[in-house]
Amino acid sequence: KGELPLKGIKALVTSGPTHEPIDPVRYLANRSSGKQGYAIATALARLGAETVLVSGPTNLSPPPGVTVKNVETAREMLAACEASLPVDVAVCAAAVADWRVDIDATQKIKKEPGASTPELRLVENPDILATISHLTTNRPSLVVGFAAETEKVIEHAVAKRARKGCDWIVANDVSPETGVMGGELNTVHLITRDGQEDWPLLPKQAVAERLARRILAHFTDRDKN
Ligand code: C5P
């Protein structure tokens, strides 16, 4: 162990947005840089975890020592996650589009003069965090989700942890006065079954390193029992 205390642990991280095609040239997406998820994958790999990063489209370089699986849509992201199992820990940091467009548009939708504007019908995407959390075989022993909240941060995150069925929620206070949105710093609260930890205002990379250390402590304590 020593310098690579997570050696022997397998980790799965989701990151980035998903892109849901409208037609071959257009898509729906969430705003997400992917930075927090890439930082978490980097931190886990640096502690020695065998790390798979399932990433939606981002401008980021693959982190060293991490296996990156690039995907576009939520359904591809779920399939890539399932193909990466079994793992010991899954961290779902991706900003998955909640809906996709219910069309099979293999050709570009044309803007014809005088024609009515197209209407998009949306259907719900799979919830990757909830799906992984509720697996009956191959469920990771630790599943971590994220929650960006603008009010009643703890209350909403506690409810989300129960609803998704995950073990931990990293709750992110993104109310405008925090300046978190688009910034480099983050204030988070770690919600577990046993309660809440309030972390100080930290750079996103430091949040990732602290989370990786906290994951290490989880497996170290487990091995002691
Ligand atoms: O429900 P909400 O989107 O706020 O939940 C956020 C958490 O759920 C994040 O960890 C996110 O990665 C995960 N999620 C997911 N698949 C979805 C929607 C959210 O994995 N379709």
TrEMBL record:
It comes from the Bacteria. Its EC number is 4.1.1.36, 6.3.2.5. Residues 11-225 are annotated as: Phosphopantothenate--cysteine ligase. GO terms for molecular function: FMN binding; metal ion binding; phosphopantothenate--cysteine ligase activity; phosphopantothenoylcysteine decarboxylase activity. CTP binds at D98, K108, P126, D127, I128, L129, F146, K160, K164. GO terms for cellular component: phosphopantothenoylcysteine decarboxylase complex. It catalyses: N-[(R)-4-phosphopantothenoyl]-L-cysteine + H(+) = (R)-4'-phosphopantetheine + CO2; (R)-4'-phosphopantothenate + L-cysteine + CTP = N-[(R)-4-phosphopantothenoyl]-L-cysteine + CMP + diphosphate + H(+). Pathway: Cofactor biosynthesis; coenzyme A biosynthesis; CoA from (R)-pantothenate: step 3/5; Cofactor biosynthesis; coenzyme A biosynthesis; CoA from (R)-pantothenate: step 2/5. Residues 6-216 form the DNA/pantothenate metabolism flavoprotein C-terminal domain. Its cofactor is FMN; Mg(2+). Catalyzes two sequential steps in the biosynthesis of coenzyme A. In the first step cysteine is conjugated to 4'-phosphopantothenate to form 4-phosphopantothenoylcysteine. In the second step the latter compound is decarboxylated to form 4'-phosphopantotheine. In the N-terminal section; belongs to the HFCD (homo-oligomeric flavin containing Cys decarboxylase) superfamily. In the C-terminal section; belongs to the PPC synthetase family. This is Coenzyme A biosynthesis bifunctional protein CoaBC. It comes from Parvibaculum sedimenti. The lineage of its organism: Bacteria, Pseudomonadati, Pseudomonadota, Alphaproteobacteria, Hyphomicrobiales. The chain holds residues 189 to 413 of 414 of the full protein.
